[in-house]
Amino acid sequence: MKITHAMVLAAGLGTRMRPITNTMPKPLVAIAGRPMIDYVLDILVAAGVEQVVINVHHFAEQMEAHLAGYHGLNILISDEREALMNSGGGLVKGLKLLDRSPAFVMNADLFWIGDESADKSNLSLLADFFDPARMDMALLCVPLERTTGHNGKKDFSLGADGRLKRYTEGDPAPVVYAGAIALLPELFDDAPQDAFNLNIYFDRAIARSRLYSVEMAGQWLTVGTPEAISEAEETIRRFPPADSDGA
C-alpha cells in the first residue's frame, strides 16, 4: 500500500524536558545539531509522504516558523493554541485537514536510525503490512534491547501472527510502541470531538483482534529529559548515515 499522507503529533508541553522547554517547544530541541522533529520529517520524506499535518500549541509561533523553512513536504498546521486535544483528539482534528486516504501517524519526539541498510525502510514496511480488511491499525514496534532513552516499560506482546495485546508480566515477545501507525482516517468517524487519549482506540482494536504490528529495523530513540540528550547523541554517532564511509 502506498501512503502519501501523515499526521505528526507535536503539540505537547514537554514538561519532563524542562527547563529547556520553558523557552521552546520540545520538537525543536536539538539532538546532534538538529531539531527532533526534523528526524521525523526526514523519515516521512524517505517513505514517499507528500503531505503532512502537524499540530501545534506550546510556543506555536516557533514551530510554525521552523516548519515554514522545511522543504520536501506540503505541511499543514492543526492549531491547538486554544486548547490541547491530547493524542486522540489532536489526531482526529488534524486528520480532518487531509483526505480519506491511508495515513501514517508519528510522534514528533520519537524516531529511529539505522534502518537504511534494511530491504525496506521502516515506514515502507509498515505501509506494505497494513491491511484494513484485517486491521484497525498497524503499529511499528521495537524490542526493548534496541531502544535508547526508554524507561524500560513493555507496551505490548507481539504474537506470531502480528497481533498485539497489552503486555502482562511473563508474556512472550514484549515490545515497545515505536511511535508510528498506519491507519485509515475513517477509523475515527465515531470519535469524540474533544480531548481524549489514543490508547482508547488501541484497546478497542485489541478487543476486536484488529491491532497488529511489525518489528522495526535499526535503533529507536526517545528523548524525554535533558539528561537523555547526550545518550541519544552518542547513539546517533554509532549509526553513521548510509552514505557515510564510517570515518
Automatic annotation (TrEMBL):
InterPro entries: GlmU-like, NTP_transferase_dom, Nucleotide-diphossugar_trans. Keywords: Nucleotidyltransferase, Transferase. The keyword Nucleotidyltransferase applies. Pfam families: NTP_transferase (PF00483). Residues 6-111 form the Nucleotidyl transferase domain. GO terms for molecular function: nucleotidyltransferase activity. The keyword Zinc does not apply. Signal peptide: none annotated. This is Mannose-1-phosphate guanylyltransferase. It comes from Ciceribacter naphthalenivorans.
